[in-house]
Amino acid sequence: MSDELPGWGTTIDPVGNCPADFDESGLVLTVPGGLHDMNPWLGSTHAPRILNPVSGDFLFEVRVSDIARPEPKSGVQGHQAYVAAGILLWGDEDNLLRWTRSASGDRGVIYLSCEQYENKKIVGAGNFPLEDKPIWLRLERRGDRLILSATYDKSGWRTLLERRCKYPADMKVGVFGLNVTKRDVEFRFEDSYLLGKAPSDKH
Q: Domain of 168?
């Protein structure tokens, strides 16, 4: 399923049960309990996302609200209890990068997490401590470099990770929500900003 959300991009909902709508603060993405993952290595890229096309260099940032920790041992289909929301850079089902606010029920922690996949294999990752409050995330591409940053109050962005990539020039970037637990989760996004050009029309 797909639909256009003004100012945010095109929704892609492979499972077909994840509504996205607006409230007074921004975008709300509801992901029911069940398998809504974003892991090419496992062959599971069913999480809903809202994406915009980009070509070459770009900068995308968004504010991600708090995520409640799931209950321990509430994972589905062999997964640990885990939810995440944030930025998704999408090439196809085998090539993507996710930069997320994440919460683990089994470990009882929240943290920032990066996972980079190329040809289904994870080629880079990183986890960083996180306070229990909303955070802005930023992903920037400069040639073959990906720069991942975060800030709590926008007074100063902190670069936490830089990665090299072999991704093509034409990609998609936006937000997504991941839920592999038994309970429904609401993810909230605000203040999205995209600086970059869309792919040229080849027709």
A: 2-197
Please give the sequence-ordered ranges of beta strands (E in DSSP) within the chain, or none if there are none. Answer: 2-5, 9-12, 20-22, 27-31, 38-39, 44-45, 49-64, 82-92, 95-104, 109-118, 121-129, 135-142, 145-151, 158-164, 170-179, 185-197
Measured on CA atoms in the order 53, 58, 62, 64, is the torsion positive or negative? positive
Q: Side chain identity at 192, as an amino acid letter?
A: S
**How many Cα atoms within 13 Å fall on the side-chain side of residue 106?**
11
Q: CA 12, CA 50: separation in Å to the nearest integer?
A: 6
Claim: this prediction has a pTM higher than 0.85: yes
Domain-embedded: residue 202: no
* CA quadruple 151, 159, 54, 94: dihedral sign: negative
pLDDT, residue 99, reads: 98
pLDDT single digits (tens) 182-201? 999 999 999 999 999 888 75
Contacts of 140 (CB under 8 A, 6+ apart): 57, 58, 59, 60, 146, 147, 149
| Average pLDDT, integer, range 107-123 | 97
CATH of the domain at 34: 2.60.120.200
CA-derived radius of gyration, the chain: 16
Residue whose C-alpha is closest to residue 99's, from 175, 6, 189, 11? 175
Give me the residues paired with residue 84 across strands: 102, 178
Contact in structure between 44 and 190 (CB atoms under 8 Å):
no
